[in-house]
From TrEMBL:
Family: Belongs to the DNA polymerase type-B-like family.
EC number per UniProt: 2.7.7.52
Cofactor(s) the protein requires to work: Mg(2+); Mn(2+)
Ranges of residues in domain Poly(A) RNA polymerase mitochondrial-like central palm: 43-170
Keyword terms: Cytoplasm, Magnesium, Metal-binding, Transferase
Pfam families hit by this protein: MTPAP-like_central, PAP_assoc
A GO BP entry: mRNA destabilization
Identification of the protein by name: RNA uridylyltransferase
Amino acid sequence: MLSQMKDYRADKRGQWILGQRIRIMKRKTACRRDIDRLNAPFLSIYQSLIPPKEEKDKQEKLLTILRSLVKKDWPEAQLYVYGSCANSFGFSKSDIDICLVIQNMDVNKSEVLLKLAETLESNNLQNVQALIRARVPIVKLMDPDTGISCDICINNILAVINTKLLHDYARIDGRLRQLAFIVKHWAKKRGVNETYQGTLSSYAYVLMCINFLQQRKPAILPCLQGMEPTYSVTVENTECAYFNEVDKLHGFGAGNGETISHLVWAFFNYWAYYHDYTNDVISVRTGGTLSKQAKDWTRRIGNDRHLICIEDPFEITHDLGRIVDKASIRVLREEFERAAEIMQHDLDPCTKLFEPYVPH
């Protein structure tokens, strides 16, 4: 990993971002006339990334086994899948993240994880490791029958609720899932989806897509946290409330006829030329942008920098972009600009857009 970091830092990336005057000029560019010709290739890429039903069946099988094992030691405990496997934005062959919820919030997590690891190992699960000194303590394991790897943490309830919120947004309009899969696929190919290298997480990209669709005119997605809440739970003094009866919102974005290819073009156009990196915070919670000043995210504190700001929907003091530093913000912006240029001018953008980045 350190050698990768070194290569990343020694690379010439991020040296060619546009000046403000050219960015403003670029905003006047109208979308290419043949944009809808690209719908079929983009939808084909999206379809290729969706996990097959057999994979979901295997995940359910593993979950059933784990639930029966957990019940022996903690009869009242619950297991919840969270993250990309459960929020509708997971690619094929993703690992599973599981949260073990024990009612006693003061439980000694290290003791529970060590006991859990022992139970899993004695029941033929493989590669079992209890990482009790990690920032988020977990047990790692691999199921030899299904070949699935998974991480189990304890009482990370906010992550479970975040997963539910994203899953509910995905049910409102199919274009969200299409856009998020394409953006995540692009980020992976271009090497800008690694938090340890100072770029953004998959979760951050999904929030960027939700916020982008909330701000289309007319809006494709509503702001669920801005509506009368039908779901509410308080976790560690954080109130998590939003309108979750999303079946009533089907057709919400019908007034906006933008196709997936047009939305991909507009997404990269926004992040290349329109977003105000100096002042703006992306906020799914409000369905728009907030000012960095209002959030007090104008200066570096410790390792937290606020060069691209994405507010967590519930844990609102958490900036998902805080790990992006001066070198990687330039890389990100250069990649957004490259993507916008390809989407506007390339005859076959689907090939060049997803070209894997190779360090020079």
